[in-house]
């Protein structure tokens, strides 16, 4: 009888411990959501060259833009030598306008060169040393990696290289971002990225949700149909947390024509002002057609000239506004647009408004702290120069 009583007592004590454990687990507060590297949504624009008409360090402040990414650096050989196109005084001028500056570095889109570089530890160290020297010279705020056209077999090597770059940028307290394509594409342009692994070493991942139909495509199609863009973002979010995902959008489109001799399509880049000029020129032609595509959320235009059919899917304020709505819908980290100079000015206030709509309620009136601090530093430097 005593033995039976002891067994019952042990069982009751065990159940009590389990109940207490369950209660303790239930009462634990949920872990706070991860925070982005910066306390505000990103609105980045790439600056492709340094012609006066597109130099963001000298032009008036673009509404809503808080980060500029000038295309300054290219790894030009397998030994890691960097081609430098940086501009003296650019960062100070950009800071004075309220921008952060994240210069872009590219691998030149050369897969063989990239493979040899990734196999050479000395070459990779050389790249990192040069980037740190450039930081010491210019005092920019971050780095934007644009490594593309990489062999799929080098997927792990490119991740390891980014990890090494990350260690250096952390020492210098720099933001590190990287441009990647949407998932499930070609081996050299999409499957070469281990997005989940890369995200562990990045502050932001710019998803280049454009070139749905690239300039070399044998078929004609939109640059960034809404349905395709949303699918690309959803697929990315399966591997990358939303507070690191920046939606890349095009400020351009392509004008397609069909070559009857070669039996294929060819394309050239068309800016937003260029597309409107073309519409004005061709709208009276009897072959001119246009229609709104609800799924892609763009307007499709076509006409015939000298028996050659032409077509384009227009990117403008309306089409971008639909895509920009994904920022709030999926709580993404911000926008990135390629590239400054292709747009119409009306695009910027719209994107600024979309950015404000996506900010948490308590942050909607907040100013980018870093940009404000940099502006103050630039003003103080100017005062000291005047006093001296």
From TrEMBL:
InterPro entries reported for this sequence: Chitinase_II/V-like_cat (IPR011583), Chitinase_insertion_sf (IPR029070), GH (IPR017853), Glyco_hydro18_cat (IPR001223)
Ranges that cross the membrane: none
GO terms, biological process: carbohydrate metabolic process
Endpoints of the signal sequence: 1-19
Keywords linked to the UniProt accession: Hydrolase, Signal
Gene Ontology molecular function, alphabetical: chitin binding; hydrolase activity
Record flagged with keyword Hydrolase: yes
Ranges of Basic residues composition bias in the record: 379-388
One family name in Pfam for this protein: Glyco_hydro_18
Domain GH18: 40-358
Source species, domain of life: Bacteria
Span list, region Disordered: 353-388
Biased composition annotated in UniProt, kind: Basic and acidic residues: 353-378
The protein's name: Glycosyl hydrolases family 18
Native source species: Succiniclasticum ruminis
């Amino acid at each position: 009888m005593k033995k039976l009583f002891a067994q019952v007592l042990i069982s009751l004590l065990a159940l009590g411990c389990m109940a207490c454990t369950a209660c303790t687990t239930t009462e634990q507060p949920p872990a706070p959501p991860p925070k982005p590297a910066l306390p505000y949504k990103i609105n980045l624009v790439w600056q492709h060259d340094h012609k006066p008409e597109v130099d963001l360090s000298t032009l008036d402040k673009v509404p809503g833009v808080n980060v500029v990414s000038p295309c300054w650096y290219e790894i030009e050989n397998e030994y890691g030598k960097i081609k430098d196109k940086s501009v003296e005084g650019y960062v100070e001028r950009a800071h004075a306008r309220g921008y952060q500056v994240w210069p872009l570095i590219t691998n030149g889109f050369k897969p063989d060169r990239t493979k040899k570089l990734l196999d050479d530890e000395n070459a990779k160290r050389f790249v990192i040393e040069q980037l740190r020297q450039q930081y010491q010279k210019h005092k920019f705020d971050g780095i934007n990696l644009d490594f593309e056209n990489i062999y799929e077999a080098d997927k792990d090597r490119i991740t390891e290289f980014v990890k090494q770059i990350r260690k250096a940028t952390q020492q210098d307290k720099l933001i590190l971002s990287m441009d990647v394509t949407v998932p499930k594409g070609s081996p050299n342009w999409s499957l070469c990225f281990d997005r989940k692994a890369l995200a562990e070493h990045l502050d932001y991942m710019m998803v280049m949700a454009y070139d749905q139909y690239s300039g070399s495509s044998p078929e004609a199609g939109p640059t960034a149909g809404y349905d395709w863009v949303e699918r690309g973002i959803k697929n990315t979010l399966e591997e990358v947390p939303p507070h690191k995902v920046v939606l890349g959008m095009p400020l351009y489109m392509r004008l397609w024509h069909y070559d009857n001799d070669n039996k294929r399509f060819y394309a050239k880049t068309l800016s937003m002002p260029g597309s409107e000029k073309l519409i004005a020129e061709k709208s009276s032609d009897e072959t001119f057609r246009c229609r709104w595509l609800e799924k892609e959320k763009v307007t499709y235009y076509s006409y015939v000239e000298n028996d050659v059919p032409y077509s384009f899917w227009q990117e403008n304020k309306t089409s971008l506004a639909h895509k920009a709505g994904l920022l709030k819908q999926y709580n993404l980290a911000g926008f990135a647009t390629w590239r400054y100079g292709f747009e119409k000015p009306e695009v910027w206030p719209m994107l600024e408004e979309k950015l404000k709509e996506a900010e948490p309620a308590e942050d909607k009136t907040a100013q980018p702290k870093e940009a404000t601090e940099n502006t103050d530093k630039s003003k103080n430097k100017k005062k000291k120069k005047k006093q001296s």
